[in-house]
Specification:
The protein is an all-alpha fold. It has five helices and no strands. The protein is elongated and about 55 Å long.
Length: 142
């Protein structure tokens, strides 16, 4: 795409879209949103970058290897939190039984393991979205 206005607006908006996605992930346990919604926003911003600047430039920003690493990392983080509970003889992904509160409005770090779980879900969602989009674009180009 050769439209300078679209490229300039994309460069200006991407950091704000991604920052808002991170905000939604981090506040998912005390407000609407969470890992899936925030991850979808971040993934959509990277898909916008791919559409506007092309696949080669997008691959430089977020390579297939990085996507694989982040997909695996998000899943491993999610499962690891669940296994920590099992090690202590608690149900998988427990929070209340472990003695953590359900979260207090306005306090990001107030709900035990839930914010960490949301981060893992967000990482998994955005990296999967971008990976799938890049794979589909590659097939379309070929």
């Amino acid at each position: 795409m050769e439209d300078k206005i679209v490229k300039t607006m994309t460069r200006m908006l991407l950091p704000f879209i991604q920052l808002y996605g991170i905000f939604i992930i981090l506040n998912g346990h005390i407000s609407p949103g969470g890992g899936f919604a925030g991850g979808a926003m971040i993934g959509t911003s990277l898909i916008l970058y791919t559409i506007v600047f092309g696949l080669p430039k997008a691959r430089k920003k977020f390579s297939h290897r990085a996507a694989e690493f982040m997909e695996s990392g998000g899943l491993i983080l999610y499962v690891a939190i669940g296994l920590i509970a099992l090690i202590f003889g608690l149900p998988f992904l427990t929070n209340i039984e472990a003695g953590f509160s359900l979260g207090e409005p306005g306090k990001i770090f107030s709900a035990g393991m839930i914010p960490i779980i949301m981060i893992g879900i967000g990482i998994k969602v955005f990296s999967t979205m971008v990976s799938l989009f890049h794979i589909l674009i590659e097939e379309e180009i070929s």
